[in-house]
Every structure is written in structure tokens, then in C-alpha cells.
């Protein structure tokens, strides 16, 4: 089964570097970078506003635990956003490709 996960990074270079490393190591099958986006969130008793880049990751669910561990160790944020969900519908041909490259 394929899952999709999202994290954010402070700049495009960090997003590109993390995406490249995750794909090269086969922890994810695809990484897409969107941005810049504007984020507003609570952090340490205040409200923060920042420009970030969203990294969308597609991966096989059986890689979830190792991917989460790698993200925690490789991500520059103290507490990185990590939200994921199983893909509800995936075409047969895309799933076959994903399995062949993972």
C-alpha cells in the first residue's frame, strides 16, 4: 500500500536536499516540493509566521517506521511536521511502478 506524507522546511535548498536523500536511499518513491507557502502556528508561547516549502512524500507503508526515524534524524527542525495517510486509491500501473522502484 502507498501512503502520502507531508513535512515543511525553511528553505528550498533544505527541501531539495532532504527530498534527494530520501529518494536516493529508497525510503520514498517520490518527493515533490511546493512553495513558498506561508505558515502561521503556535511555537513556544507565541504565534509565528514563516515562509516554508512543503515536501510531499509518497512511500510504501511498510517503510513508515524507518522513514519516520530518518526524518527525525535528518530534518533541521526541532519538531518537524510529519503528517501521513494511506492513499485511498492508486491506479494499478502506478502501484506496479512504485513497487518496482521501492
What does this 3D model show about the protein?
With 102 residues, the protein is of the alpha+beta class. It has one domain: 2-Layer Sandwich (Alpha-Beta Plaits), CATH 3.30.70. Helices cover 33% and strands 40% of the residues. Strand 2 and strand 3 (46-60) form a beta hairpin. The chain is elongated. The N and C termini lie close together (12 Å).
Quick structural summary:
By secondary structure, the protein is α+β, with helices and mostly antiparallel strands. The protein is built from 3 helices and 4 strands, in the order βαββαβα.
What key attributes describe this structure?
102 residues; alpha+beta; Alpha-Beta Plaits; 4-stranded antiparallel beta sheet; 4 strands; 40% strand; elongated
- Overall geometry: elongated
Question: Helices and strands: which structural class?
Answer: alpha+beta
Global Rg: 14 Å
Count of domain modules? 1
Output the number of helix runs: 3
- The SSE string, one letter per element, is EHEEHEH
Topology:
Blueprint: E1 2-9, H1 12-24, E2 30-43, E3 46-60, H2 64-74, E4 83-86, H3 92-101
Antiparallel strand pairs: 1-3, 1-4, 2-3
Amino acid at each position: 500500500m502507498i501512503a502520502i506524507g507531508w513535512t515543511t522546511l525553511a528553505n528550498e535548498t533544505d527541501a531539495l536536499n532532504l527530498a534527494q536523500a530520501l529518494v536516493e536511499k529508497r525510503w520514498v518513491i517520490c518527493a515533490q516540493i511546493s512553495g513558498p507557502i506561508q505558515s502561521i502556528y503556535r511555537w513556544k508561547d507565541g504565534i509565528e509566521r514563516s515562509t516554508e516549502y512543503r515536501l510531499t512524500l509518497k512511500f510504501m507503508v511498510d517503510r513508515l517506521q524507518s522513514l519516520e526515524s530518518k526524518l527525525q534524524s535528518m530534518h533541521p527542525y526541532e519538531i518537524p511536521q510529519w503528517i501521513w495517510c494511506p492513499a485511498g486509491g492508486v491506479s494499478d500501473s502506478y502501484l506496479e511502478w512504485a513497487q518496482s522502484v521501492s
